[in-house]
Amino acid sequence: MTSLRDQFRPADHPNDHFLLTTIVGAYPKPKWHDRAREMYENPDADFGDSEWQEAKNDAARLVTGEHERAGIDVVTDGEMRRNEMVEYFADRIEGYEFNGLVKVWGHNYFNKPSVRTEVEYDDTWLVEEYEFTSSVADRPVKVPITGPYTLAKWCFNEVYEDDATLAFEVAELVNDEIQKLVDAGARYIQIDEAALATTPDDYAIVEECLERIVSDLPDDVYVGLHVCYGDYSRIYPEMLEFPVDEFDLELVNGNYEQLDVFKDPAFTKNIGFGVVDAHRSEVESVEEIKANIKRGLEVVPPEQLTISPDCGVKLLPRAAAYQKMANMVEAAREVEAELDEGIVDVARSSASAD
Amino acid sequence: MVEYESAATGLLPLPDWAKEELSELKGHQKQDLITGTANDDVEDAYDRARADVLATQTEAGLDLVTEGQLRWDDMLSHVLSVNDNVDTRGIVRYYDNNNFYREPVVTGALEPTGDVARDLERAADTTDGTLCGVLPGPYSLAELATDEFYGEDRFLEALATYLAGEATECPDLDTLFLLEPSLAVHDTEEPVRVREAIDTVADAVDASVLVHTYWETIPENVYGHLLDAAIEGVGYDLVTSRVGSTSLADEYGTPESVVLGVVNGQNTILEDATDVRRDIDEFVDRAGATLERVYAAPNTELFYLPTNRCEAKLETLARAVDSVEVSA
């Protein structure tokens, strides 16, 4: 059976089984890249648009290459051009403006934008990023994009009647952007809806947003949804109705305590299964990660299992982040080989519709 | 004739320079937050920030100013975070917001620390404005905290006694706000016990005690007990719960004083002073003859806002009250 995922299988893939490996969220930025941003933001520094552009390209090229060296099947540039998951997009959407930092907890602040006028699509958000990354990558490139529910929920809504109405309007803009990304060649889109974890009762709003996002997309576009740090039992099994191909879930952090949630009823979509912890700098061994991958096989068969880190690894030391990726790929390849040899029990047979 | 005062409810945003300076001095992690002891540089930064927000409130034209509760890293549960017999543990959600605080776990007998009194004394040295005090209400504090010492039948009373002790150490104040959002958002099954806890704090001070509630309408049974409490006033959130709050006042009356949350502490949208005044007038018209004093205030704490919007809203409050006074 050919699945949408097979388009991402490398021609020289060594095993019959294919556990697609990919990354999630932002990767650690090289220190020099942070320094470059500081200089770019300092009006007294002799560091202008072209120098900053060069720095972003260099960082994107570097991290894309780092992912490829680790053996990741579908890579990203580690979001080297982005500052923060809401701010980056709010800065590019007509209608949002910034008034200053607000407290999240302790001395952790967020430049929380306000929606001051009706939101409108202006210039593209990610097409340039995608085109550059695919030009320097030998592997397929995934595009992570912050979802409309999160863009609506994590701002001050001054205009729309409620956050749902704002989210639906933003969803139309996300759809515009994804259409442009698809025209540019993107085939793997990951919607990041971090806010859903904090307000799971709003899953119907997220579903409605996703319907708008995927409207009129070509059949060969693979859409994932990343949700992190939540009580999944509050959105499962309802989330299986979402019009996406894959759910990327953060699970190691909770020591797979939530895994049983996904066993009944059966998980009918693909699962992006978190197998390395994004918040622990100690690097998991290949053996440990293999054991984690096998936990995934308790929930879905191999053809529905995508292997990824729990969440963005951006807070880890870069060397640890790299080693986690490399070990993750090695573990996935070893489990594939074991599956080929028939020495791994597969609890689930395919329940996927695709 | 009704008197009108403009006031902030406390927990103001840190000035932007202080956000940067203090995060560099203190760090970003759980263990870096306020514990009751701090080094001189941190204390100095807070002193300058406190002077800043006091000046901001005075310049905005507020009748009552607060010291800003800038050191309250854990929001309302700060008064526990600084106590030696409280462990601060994991990060937990602060009501229904995308804000978090360290879970305070009471592990031993609570003795007053004088922490709040000390900040008020420092504030009094730097302002000529009329300073009001701010404390969490005992019920909200009990809802935010975890008890591993007193037991369920004693915890609320212990917190009330603790808060009364902190209040007693404060310099003389005309007005003391007890912030009690939990009274509106959690439906207590023991309104008598809650009223007695509030009385414990109120009886400890000479100040006029105002129990402010927000995010929802106070349940009717709780409201009845609040009217019987030994306090001067009750606060209503007219931003989120205008109809419900006005109905309460209409049906059951009000205490002598009311705090009216009339500007939105959680949205940057700027209210018009004329609209704010209309909301105040409408409530006063419905409240009946017992009402003597109105405190116009934000509905919630203000730390949710960027500083420029916080300042603009304080100015709106002052203008709204001035316009009521002119027309009265």
From TrEMBL, chain A:
GO-annotated molecular function: 5-methyltetrahydropteroyltriglutamate-homocysteine S-methyltransferase activity; zinc ion binding
Cofactor(s) required for function per UniProt: Zn(2+)
A single GO BP: methionine biosynthetic process
Metal-binding is among the record's keywords: yes
Keywords per UniProt: Metal-binding, Zinc
Domain of life: Archaea
Sequence ranges assigned to domain Cobalamin-independent methionine synthase MetE C-terminal/archaeal in this UniProt record: 20-333
Glycosyltransferase is among the record's keywords: no
InterPro entries: Met_Synth_C/arc, UROD/MetE-like_sf
Protein known as: Methionine synthase
Source organism of the structure: Haloarcula pellucida
From TrEMBL, chain B:
Pfam families cross-referenced by the UniProt entry: Meth_synt_1
Domain Cobalamin-independent methionine synthase MetE N-terminal: 88-280
Single GO term (MF): 5-methyltetrahydropteroyltriglutamate-homocysteine S-methyltransferase activity
BP GO annotations: amino acid biosynthetic process
Protein name: Cobalamin-independent methionine synthase MetE N-terminal domain-containing protein
Species classification: Archaea, Methanobacteriati, Methanobacteriota, Stenosarchaea group, Halobacteria
